[in-house]
Structure formats: C-alpha cells, structure tokens
Amino acid sequence: MSLLPKALLLVAAFGLAACNNPDRFGAGGAGAGSAGGAGGMNGGFVDTTGLGDPNNPQSIAYFNQRVGDRVLFPVDQHTLTDQGRQVLSGQAQWLMTNASYAVIIEGHADEQGTREYNLSLGARRAAAVQNYLISQGVPAGRMRTVSYGKERPIEVCSTEACYSQNRRSVTVLSMGAGA
Amino acid sequence: MTVKRFLIPALAPVLAPVLAIALMALSGVQTPAQAQSGPLRIEITEGVIEPLPFAVPDFVDEGGAGEYARNIARVIASDLSGTGLFREIPREAHIARVSSFDNSIGYEDWKAINAQAVITGAVTVSGDRIVVKFRLFDVFSGQQLGEGLQFAGTTQTWRRMAHKVADAAYSRITGEGGYFDTRVVFVSESGPKNQRLKRLAVMDYDGANVQYLTDSSSIVLAPRFSPTGDRILYTSYATGFPRITLMDVGSLRTQTLAEQQGTMTFAPRFSPDGGRVVFSLERGGNSDLYMLTLGSGNLSQLTNAPSIETAPSFSPDGSQIVFESDRSGTQQLYIMPASGGEARRISGGQGRYSTPVWSPRGDMIAFTKQHQGRFHIGVMRTDGSEERLLTASFLDEGPTWAPNGRVIMFTRETSGAGGSAALYSVDISGRNLRQIPTDGAASDPAWSPLLP
C-alpha cells in the first residue's frame, strides 16, 4: 500500500509540470494521472518551473510531497476536516515563506453527481481552501481557484475507495506571485 | 443501419442551409385524401402501442439516382422503425413492385402482407442536384394520405431529404411534429477515465454525418443550440478556467462571454428568442444565476443566495426559468420569472433532482434524479405533478428534448475503471430506449430544432 501515495505524488508532479503551459488542458495536460508516468511527458508539455529536489524546502517538490498539496472532502461536503485544516496550515506557512509562487487551487468532485452541480461543488471546495489560506495570512491576490467538477478524477474505480481520493482540492504552484 | 454515411466537409456550415431544400407540393396527380382524416392514425398515448406495419419499397430511379433510390428508402424506414411506433415489413415480403411513381399502388397487394402504410417515392440526380418525391398511402382505406411532396437540393443533403420524407409521414400518421431532420451537438470523448479528452461535435439525430467543431486541447462541456441552430453555447476551459463560450456554427468562430476575473461561468442556455443567455456564475465558491443580453452585453443577476443555483432552462414562451438549487439542503427544481424573483419549488418526491429542461411544448420538465444510489431520467408536469421516471442506471444525466417534445436524449455512463459515456434516447412514455450509434464515447447531447 505504500506505493499508492507515491503514485499520487508522481501524478501530482506531472499535473503541476503542466501548469505554465498553455496546453495544460490538452493532450499533454491529460497525462496527469497517467499510470505510465513518464509516458505522459510525451504529450507535448514542457514546463519551465522546475520541481526541484524534495529535500530542498524551497522546492515545489517539497511543497507537494512534504507539506502536502491536497485536501480530501467527505461526500457532498466542502467543509474542511481537521486533517484538511492541518495540511492547509502547513501550506499557508510554506506559502508565506516562499512568497514568489503563485497559487491555483483546484476543486474536484467524485462522479456521483450531475456535471453542473459537481462544478459548483468543486468551486465550493476550492473556495473553502482559499478562504482558509487567507485566514492564515496568505494574500488573496496570490491565489486563484478553478473547479473541475467530476472532469478530472485521479482514481478510476466506482467505489468509495476511489471516490474519497477524487473529492479533493489540489494546491498547484507556479512561479510568479500575484499572477 | 447499413446506409452509407456521407461526411459534410469540415468547415461547411452545420445547420445553416448547406443548400436550400426546396419543398413543393406535387399538383395534379391524384386526388389527395383529406389530410389526417383517414383511419390511419397512431394516437401517441401512455398505453402500449402495437407498432404500425408499413412498407417502403426502394424509390423509383427517374434518372441518375443509382444507390440513392435505395439508400433514401432505407433511411426513411430506419427513422420510422426507430420511433418504436412503426414496424417495417421487410422488402422480401413485398408482393408488388413499384416501378412508376405516378401510378397509384395496388392496395390489395399491400393489404395481403398487412402493410397499413406504404411510402413510395422517386429520385432524380443530375450533377450534384437531387430531387426526391414521395407519396404516403393508407392501405386499408385505399387512399393517398396527404399530398405528394418533392424536395430538391444537393446530393450532399440526401439524408436530410430522407429525414424530411420520414418527418412528413410520421406527422401525417401521428398528428405530431416530426424530429428526424435534426442535428445533435454533443461532446465526443476519448481516452481513459483519468485522461479524458473532450471535443465538440455535431451529428444527425441518428448518429450519421459526424462533424467536429473543436479539437480536444481543452475541456468542453454541455453544448446548447440556439433556437435557430446557427450558434452553440458551451462551457470551455480554453482560458484555463471554465467560461461560457459562444460559437458561430458557420464560421466556427468563438467568443468568451461574461468574462470576469475570479469567476467561473457555466451551464449556459439560450432564451427562446436567441437574444439572451441564462447561466451560472460562481464567485467565491457560490453559484448564482445571471442573464446576459447578447446585443448590449448587459448582465443582470437573477438569484442571490448562498446555495448552488444552476442548470437554468427557459419556458418556451420565455417568461419563466426552471433551475436547480440546493437551498433546501438537497438539489431540487424551482421555477421563477425570467427576470428573477420569487421561486417556487416544483419537485416533491424523494431523492435529488437536477438538470431540468423545459419541453418545447411547454407542458413538461425533463430532469435527472438521483435516488438510492441510482440515476434516472424523468419527466413531470410544470407544477411538479405526474412525475414519471423513464430510465434507471448507474449514471443517467442531462436530458434534451426532441423538437416535438416526444423523445428525450441523454448521457448514460457506465461504472468502473473502464466506464464510458454513450448517448441514449427514450420516449416520454419510457418506451423505446435505444443507444445512438457514435464512434467512441459521447456525452452531453443537445437536440437542434427541426431544420428549415
């Protein structure tokens, strides 16, 4: 089971790698979540924000893996769990120290819902994360939110084991604060 | 269906007249029966219907028609059989041969094989021009039903002509408008569930003539036709954020609407006059309904609540809007004046109700319902009464009405890692559930009006 979190982190890294690329939602961007990992890189996105070394506390890789870039939500909820708040406090601290990164907060839903409602639900989740980060001192101007509804699951089964991973927010970093 | 498919060139207008199809009555041949007065009539009611047996012999080749004479007859037969209201008597069973369009048919020969309706026709092709004529006969009363009609256009439009013949026959026999000469805009999907690629496409209502409107470089969702079919509204992630987008179908030019930094816009739908767009705008996590006037760019807010307000749809007269909201705690359906204001809840059953769509006749609302882990497509009266669930599956959603208000198309998605979406249609009686043939997965259908 210890492989799963690593696989998720890898996925997160590829999702991140696309974030400065105008094609991030295209064939390349869709490589996020690819089990093949590196195979997804052939999709055409070439990123200019290096992930860095996860042992370097200033790197994006460190943020994604050590601080934690995602927060999970209960079914049909957008209120933060205690665990979620803990992760976000860490994110806020890190973001205050590393002020050069801009932030996009993605909100996602599982597939148990209609498309429009899930877009709204994902937006509620992203906003809950943004509001928490603001309350922890991260300037609102550094952050934007985007909802993917149920369009970008990372786990593909149709059981709670996957749904629980798909009901998430992901804090995506890129260079250039206030973008 | 074994009919040869004909692809319209990629940039040709989709619904704008590729070539005007001329429609004229054939005069001077036979005495037309009083339209729709004969015994040949299907009343579309809730009861079980025994499909009406009909025959469509190959059309007569009156010059250069070649395969068209047969293919047009096949499309007509497929249209009518596809409704579930008609049953074709196979050509092998036919006794009579129709060799001349101008003669009446030998009713006894058709009566002998129990064909109650017979459609005969003729095709002439000259260069890229095609002329299609047809007559409809009521076998048991021994009369022609309605006038003969003639359609003319380019050979490229041959399927449309077949659909028009089928629409006329359907209409004369049922007394309802047809829906075969229509297009459906939808989202064509490819790739595995966690790497889904989506692009806009249009096709004939029966899955033929697919034409792609966008590439798959960004997510596209829930396209909707304008009332005249010349424009499409949809939600696009082309900017990196969900934005309602207007596409001109002829030129494929797109325009982002109501763009405001820090907001998400989605779930757009045209007003019946095509001049306004009602949609959801999300700001700070809260989704409300807004109205954009296309000419002036004037934006007005219709709802103002901390709950989710989305999936709006106009009544056909433009005076009201039905939408979904979770203001009561779960998703339910509400109707309010098109200018905003007091909303009344119409859904009252158990479960969650979403994606309401007002029927073109104005009498019903189609919706998605979630209850006990299943999804349903259903219909109810506009006051919420007479709720009827038409389907049930792991995930059915997003109904769209055929222009005659008798058939609903929707998305059905299967479960699991290999799950994928497909388009289905069903009668508002709950009968005749069928999958629309598409190349690959497809979702979010929206039916066009009847083409001119």
Task: Give a written overview of the molecule.
- Chain A: It comes from Pseudotabrizicola alkalilacus.
- Chain A: Residues 1-17 form the signal peptide.
- Chain A: Part of the Tol-Pal system, which plays a role in outer membrane invagination during cell division and is important for maintaining outer membrane integrity.
- The complex is a heterodimer of chains A (179) and B (452).
- Chain A is α+β, with helices and mostly antiparallel strands and 179 residues long.
- In chain A, 38% of the residues lie in helices and 15% in strands.
- Chain A folds into two domains: 1-48, no CATH class; 50-175, 60s Ribosomal Protein L30, Chain: A (2-Layer Sandwich).
- Chain A is built from five helices and four strands, in the order H-H-E-H-E-H-E-H-E.
- In chain A, helix 3 crosses helix 4.
- The model of chain B is unreliable at 1-37 (pLDDT under 50).
- Chain B has helices at residues 68-82, 107-112, 158-174, and strands at 22-25, 52-55, 60-61, 86-88, 117-126, 129-138, 143-144, 149-154, 183-190, 197-204, 211-212, 220-225, 231-236, 243-248, 254-256, 263-270, 276-283, 286-293, 299-301, 309-314, 320-325, 332-337, 344-345, 352-358, 364-371, 374-381, 388-389, 396-401, 407-413, 421-427, 434-435, 441-447.
- In chain B, helix 1 (68-82) packs across helix 3 (158-174).
- In chain B, the strands form seven sheets. In chain B, strands 1, 2, 3, 4, 5, 6, 7 and 8 form an eight-stranded mixed beta sheet that branches. A four-stranded antiparallel beta sheet of chain B has the order 11-10-9-32, with no helix packed on it. Chain B has a four-stranded antiparallel beta sheet with strand order 12-13-14-15, with no helix packed on it.
- The relative contact order of chain B is 0.11.
- Chains A and B meet through helix 4 and strand 3 of A and strand 16 of B.
CATH superfamily of the largest domain in chain A: OmpA-like domain
Outline the biggest β-sheet of chain B.
8 strands, mixed
How much is the average pLDDT of chain A?
79
The total count of strands of chain A amounts to 4
CATH topology of the largest domain in chain B: Neuraminidase
How much strand of chain A?
5-15%
The level 1 CATH classification of the largest domain in chain A is Alpha Beta
Protein name (chain A): Peptidoglycan-associated lipoprotein
Signal peptide (chain A): 1-17
Subunit structure (chain A): The Tol-Pal system is composed of five core proteins: the inner membrane proteins TolA, TolQ and TolR, the periplasmic protein TolB and the outer membrane protein Pal. They form a network linking the inner and outer membranes and the peptidoglycan layer.
Domain OmpA-like (chain A): 60-177
